Amino acid sequence: MSNVDAAEIRHFSSLASRWWDPRGEMAALHHINPARVRYIENAVGGLRGKRVVDVGCGGGILTEALAVRGATAVGIDLAEASLEVARLHGLESGIKCEYRCIASEALADEAPASFDVVCCLEMLEHVPDPASVIAACAKLVKPGGDVVFSTINRNPKSYALMIVGAELIAGLVPRGTHEYAKFIRPSELEAWARAAGLTAVELRGMRYNPLLKSASIGNDMDVNYLMHCRRDAA
C-alpha cells in the first residue's frame, strides 16, 4: 500500500513489547482508554452484539476493551510486531479478538459494509494520506453504522503540549511519536469525512490529566478530540 509511512511502522514496532506495560512508555494510552471506550459505547448506543473494527489497533488495548463490552472485535494494523503482542496478550487474558496485518483500504475492498462500528483512534496523524483511511472507514461501515475518529488538533497549544511537553520534557509519550505537520484540524477531518459519505454527529474534546492518570471527555478540542460520524442509511 502507498499510504504507509515506513518510519512510523518502525517506530511502533520498536515499542511492541511495551504496549501492555501500564507503567511504561505506553502508560498514557492505558490511562485514556477507559474514557475512549465509554465515549464510543455511548455514541453508538452500546457495543454488545455489534461487529467492530479497530483501525490501527497497535497492541490491542482498545480492541480488547471493545470485546469486553460485548463487541465482536477485529483489530487491524501494519506493524506485525504489535499484532503479535496483541495476539499473545489475548491468549493470556482470555479475551477473544481477531487481528490482521492489513491496511484499512485493502480490508475495505475485501469486506465493504461489514461492520456496525468502525473505530480509528490516534491513527490518522500517523499516515501520509489520512483522507484515504477515512474513505476506507466509510466503506467498511454498514449503511446507518457509526464511525469514531480521534486525533490531535493542529495549533500552537497542541504543539506545546503534545510534542514539547509530553515528548521532550515529561516523557509521557515516546520521543518521535508525533509530527506536528501531521496533526489535523477538526474542520479538515469533517471535510474528509463528508467527502467520504459520512455525516459528523458530534465533536468532543478529550483532556488527559497525567497527575490523576486519567482522561475526561469535554468541550476543549484544542489538543485531543473525537469525532463521531454516521454513514447514510440509504
UniProtKB/TrEMBL annotation:
Give the pathway listed in the UniProt entry for this protein: Cofactor biosynthesis; ubiquinone biosynthesis
* UniProt entry keywords in alphabetical sequence: Methyltransferase, S-adenosyl-L-methionine, Transferase, Ubiquinone, Ubiquinone biosynthesis
Top-level taxon of the source organism? Bacteria
| Recorded catalytic activity of this chain's protein | a 3-demethylubiquinol + S-adenosyl-L-methionine = a ubiquinol + S-adenosyl-L-homocysteine + H(+); a 3-(all-trans-polyprenyl)benzene-1,2-diol + S-adenosyl-L-methionine = a 2-methoxy-6-(all-trans-polyprenyl)phenol + S-adenosyl-L-homocysteine + H(+)
Q: Name one GO molecular function term.
A: 3-demethylubiquinol 3-O-methyltransferase activity
Query: What Gene3D superfamilies would the database entry show?
Result: Vaccinia Virus protein VP39
Tell me which Gene Ontology terms the entry assigns under biological process. Answer: methylation
Cross-referenced InterPro entries, in alphabetical order?
Answer: SAM-dependent_MTases_sf (IPR029063), UbiG_MeTrfase (IPR010233)
Q: What class of enzyme is it?
A: transferase
UniProt-annotated binding residues for S-adenosyl-L-methionine: R36, G56, D77, L121
What Pfam families does the database record attribute to this sequence? Methyltransf_23
| Family indicated by similarity | Belongs to the methyltransferase superfamily. UbiG/COQ3 family.
Role summary: O-methyltransferase that catalyzes the 2 O-methylation steps in the ubiquinone biosynthetic pathway.
Would you tell me the protein name for this molecule? Answer: Ubiquinone biosynthesis O-methyltransferase
Organism of origin: Hydrocarboniphaga daqingensis
